[in-house]
Amino acid sequence: MKFTSIALTSTLTATSFGNPIPEDDNMIQKRATSCTVSAYSSVSSAKSSCTSITLSNIAVPAGKTLDLTGLKSGQVVTFAGRTTFGYKEWEGPLVSVSGTDVKIIGASGSVLDGEGSRWWDGKGGNGGKTKTKFFAAHSLKSSSIASVTIKDSPVQVFSFSSATSVTVTKPTINNKNGDTNSLGHNTDAFDIGNSDHITIDGATVYNQDDCLAINSGTNIIFTNGYCSGGHGLSIGSVGGRSNSVVDTVTISNSQIVNSDNGIRVKTVSGATGSVKGVTYSNITLNGIKKYGIVIQQDYENGSPTGTPTNGVKIDKLKLSGVTGTVTSSATNVYILCRIYLEVDLVTARPYSQGFPILQIRNASIANVTTTTNSDADPQGWNTKTLSDLPKIDSARAQLSILNSAYSYHGIFIVHDELREVPTSNVLFSRKINALDPELEGTAEDVFKVFQDFLTAHPTETVLCSIKWDYDRSGQPSDFESLLESLFNDGSHGSWYTSSTFPKLDDARGKIVLIRRYNENLGFYMDVSNNTPDHTDSTGQFRVQDIYNPSTLPDGTPNYDTKWNAVKNFLNTRQPFNSSQLNLNCLSAVKIEGINVLYKPAFWANEINARMRTWLGTIETQTANLGIVAMDFPDVPGSDWSFSVK
Question: PROSITE patterns, from UniProt (predicted)?
Fold first, then answer.
């Protein structure tokens, strides 16, 4: 038995070496299970003969991998001292580990030193020198990696692929030297692909790219981390791989410091896949340079400035307890997505003007607060919490719309009929019931509110449904002259005047009128009373307006009549068609045969609650989202919470 280059931690007597037949084979085997290896050439034999292997000050030759693949169940490998690697331009990896039920440990004071400055040229994996990746944990199963310290990686550090049930505790990645002259690049700390049940707990990372990048995988946990100098905690990029599914990820209790991004979800433009069940909670941001939160469906190895696509679905994304600061030139929240259901109008609204309402289906954001380090913010947008931001008036409904080109923003819809009472120029004038005062407001007042709102929020759109109606004397009254006077008062720049179906980019900062009367100019819908479903002659609109549902035999309102019509309208709109605008008035004015007008909440109490339940039972399968106009969502007692949990 030859032990050259392998120092046994158990001391064998001279007699033992001199005797060709060991006194006790089992004793020698037991003694030989714990080995300390100091030469690269002896690693292979130690793998085959030792249960516990200490790698002490190993010098790995240039172009070679420290091969720890195929480890046996129960083996423990400990890095001690300084592990170094010779220089060669190649892809690597420098270290490779696989096996089942194994442990990889970093002894106190140990370091795996990549001396990455020999490769760094500021280009990372995008050209220049061919740079070697560091630590491949591929096909590693039911195993652990603890207290390993890696310094100055040439490019990506840890790579997990086809790994299952792996726990990484207290790893340290120190690539601070890569900040010098910005030479370090693409030094991702943890790349995860096609893996299941990976937990990373207590990581400390200084690098120049993603602290965490999950390209595909399920049941991933990253917690108690500290990430500095890189690109933040990322989902993605997702798409363009054989496995492009990310499902059930929890990222929690972590700090992101002096990084380009804080939280990032990125999917590949034109690709397919899915991101589902991702939760970020209790994340602290400090000194973020570009984006505090960025969610993009247009990733092309660059900034989120392209055209989003919806091939990679984002579903059930939750951000909770995200706090901290960004620099004066940074953006708190940037979202660029192709599919959306507008979620929780107040808490999903971004901080900065010019950026869209959250456009992720089944997403929720709560307790998110960021501030800037600059006083150059006269409107105070960057220092407001989400709950401080403007909220739509309770008398306006809310609308989400998707069109065939771009889909960046929500639209506010007003769908009271536009009425003119002679000599008073009243937009609407009616008694809510015999006990309430008359409610009225002039058209000038209403459109002034619209224009002031659009001046303050130039990326928004106001969609106003107007309907030719009668005054109280029963005579028709032409209000086109009224609209013309409003248009000519100097504010015509805020009106959408084309006769074509608008795309959202065309309608930003403008009032879009939908005419619900027969007119051959612009939009028109000749809608009869109480129509369950009407499509205008161009096929662009479908509308339902059942304003006086029937009564039950005892004279009480028949909510089922109203709701069944609404539900049928919704069901027939699926799959939603982006070329059509679907409008539905969920409330009603009165009950058939009873000449009494009712308060808004009279119908909203019942119908909005049913609408909320219905939304919870569907799963939108297409990017083409139809329109659901919520009536009076803020009326006390209407039991409507405009959010999807």
Answer: POLYGALACTURONASE
Please list, in sequence order, all residues whose beta carbon lies within 8 angstroms of the beta carbon of residue 71, skipping any fewer than 6 positions away: 47, 77, 97, 98, 99, 102
Write down the pLDDT at residue 314: 84
Q: What is the DSSP code string of 172-198?
A: EEE-GGGGGGG------SEEEESEEEE
Has this prediction a pTM greater than 0.70? Answer: no
User: In the prediction, which pLDDT does 22 show?
Assistant: 37
Residue with tokens 């690539």: 175
Q: Peptide bond preceding 254: is omega within 30 degrees of 0, i.e. cis?
A: no
Structural contact between residues 567 and 559, judged by C-beta atoms closer than 8 angstroms: no
Parallel/antiparallel/unpaired status of strands 6-8 and 34-37: antiparallel
**Contact between 7 and 45 (Cβ < 8 Å):** no
* Phi (first) and psi of residue 500, to 5 degrees: -95, 160
DSSP state of 147: S
Distance CA 33, CA 325 (A): 52
Query: Which tokens go with 35?
Result: 């080995």
Out of 185, 231, 409, 415, pick the active-site residue.
Answer: 231
**CA triple 472-474-479, angle to 5 deg:** 75
According to DSSP, the residues that pair with 288 across neighbouring strands are 326
Q: How far is the C-alpha of 600 from the C-alpha of 630, rounded, in Å?
A: 12
The residue ranges of every structural domain in the chain are 210-387, 394-524, 529-637
Burial of 123 from C-beta contacts in 10 A (0-12 / 13-18 / 19+)? middle
pLDDT tens figures, 50-80: 999 999 999 999 999 999 999 999 999 999 9
The segments of the chain whose pLDDT lies below 50 read 1-31, 339-441, 470-478, 517-526, 537, 620-645
SS (H, E, C) 255-324: EEECCCEEEEEEEECCCCEEEEEEEEEEEEEEEECCEEEEEEEEECCCCCCCCCCCCEEEEEEEEEEEEE
Buried b (16+ CB within 10 A) or exposed e, 475-500: eeeebeebbeebbeeebeebbbeeee
210-387 in CATH: which number? 2.160.20.10
Tokens of 469: 């109606």
Tokens encoding 310: 């919806």
The 3-class secondary structure across 575-624, one letter per residue, is CCCCCCEEEECCCCCCECCECCCCCHHHHHHHHHHHHHHHHCCCCCCCCC
Question: Cis bond leading into 553, ω under 30°?
Answer: no
Q: What are phi and psi of 544, to 5 degrees?
A: -130, 130
pLDDT of residue 270: 83
- Cα–Cα distance measured from residue 96 to residue 135, given in angstroms and rounded to the nearest whole number: 6
Give the residue among 389, 493, 485, 502 at the shortest CA–CA distance from 444: 485
Q: What angle do CA 332, 325, 309 make, to 5 degrees?
A: 25
Contact 132, 124 (CB under 8 A): no
492 in catalytic set? no
Three-state SS string over 515-575 comes to ECCCCCCCCCCCCCCCCCCEECCCCCEEEECCCCCCECCCCCECHHHHHHHHHHHHHHCCC
Provide CB contacts within 8 A for 215, sequence distance 6+. 191, 192, 193, 236, 237, 238, 241, 244, 246
Neighbours of 458 (CB within 10 A): 12
Geometric angle at alpha carbon 637, from 452 and 440, rounded to 5°: 40
pLDDT value, residue 317? 85
Q: Helices 443-456 & 480-487, crossing angle to 10 degrees? A: 40
For residue 443, the 8-state DSSP code is H
